[in-house]
């Protein structure tokens, strides 16, 4: 009985399914490639809505997350940037990313999430601040059920402004889990799509290299709406509220609009509670004297940088397999001094 259960699942909540390895390759590879493009200044903003699987740990899958693409992407960014800021607005605590960088000051993790009532994953108390060199570089903003746009955005902007001012990151990674939206099957917040997207708009205004990923989201039509609106925000493009005719249009009935109304869950986040959390976070930030300096090491070369202009290609045109294969590196190709550079990222 036990062996059957192990073969069907990786842990309690990560089922095995056909093409699982290819699925992990695609979403994790997308985030790694996004980081490399930012490192090589091929873009200012890179998006991977398939990524953002923030619960996976070094040695275990967790919370529907198999490989933590965010950690892999941040490790890439650390090759070129002394300090990386990670921001998470998923309804669940970004525990896998926090754990990966809990002992370093080179990555500051900031997670806004539901906490308490045995809500998954059970971590993310405001008192969890990091350890050793990473002390005070893990920031948790634990929230209760029903937080609305006004309260969330005010708290988000206050904390993130102070974080950027204090930490001076060279690049930002933003996880946009859509399960913090009103009406999500597993969520318990009252955020509208515009309220969620306002966080993206605010982070974009810092004009720092930005890697944006998806994350959770269990009411699929609202996930699609949310990330569509946020893609528009990142492109400075105002989208009409009416969804145009498409093969999935039936999922957006009856109003066929991009926006959703605010939720009606009782807001248990009193003004005094939010004020207390804000003051605790800002007090922790005051313990950071200045942005940490880092001795940058020799950067290993990237395996793959595209040698063609993707912007010139028609995004609606499918690329045949032969053309795709020409841009994939063979497994037996190595760069000179491969083994010599293996130790570089161990020091992160």
From TrEMBL:
Domain Histone deacetylase: 11-232
Active site: 55
A single Gene Ontology CC term: nucleus
Entry EC number(s): 3.5.1.98
Residues annotated as binding a divalent metal cation: 90, 92, 179
Principal place of residence: nucleus
Gene Ontology MF annotations: histone deacetylase activity, hydrolytic mechanism; metal ion binding
The protein's role, per its UniProt record: Responsible for the deacetylation of lysine residues on the N-terminal part of the core histones (H2A, H2B, H3 and H4). Histone deacetylation gives a tag for epigenetic repression and plays an important role in transcriptional regulation, cell cycle progression and developmental events. Histone deacetylases act via the formation of large multiprotein complexes.
Compartment(s) where it occurs, according to its Swiss-Prot or TrEMBL record: Nucleus
SUPFAM superfamilies: Arginase/deacetylase
Ranges for region Disordered: 306-348
InterPro entries: HDAC_I/II, HDACs, His_deacetylse_dom, His_deacetylse_dom_sf, Ureohydrolase_dom_sf
Annotated Basic and acidic residues bias: 315-332
Annotated catalysed reactions: N(6)-acetyl-L-lysyl-[histone] + H2O = L-lysyl-[histone] + acetate
Top-rank taxon: Eukaryota
Binding site for substrate: 13, 63, 218
Protein name: histone deacetylase
Cofactor(s) of this protein: Zn(2+)
Keywords from the named record: Chromatin regulator, Hydrolase, Metal-binding, Nucleus, Repressor, Transcription, Transcription regulation
Similarity section: Belongs to the histone deacetylase family. HD type 1 subfamily.
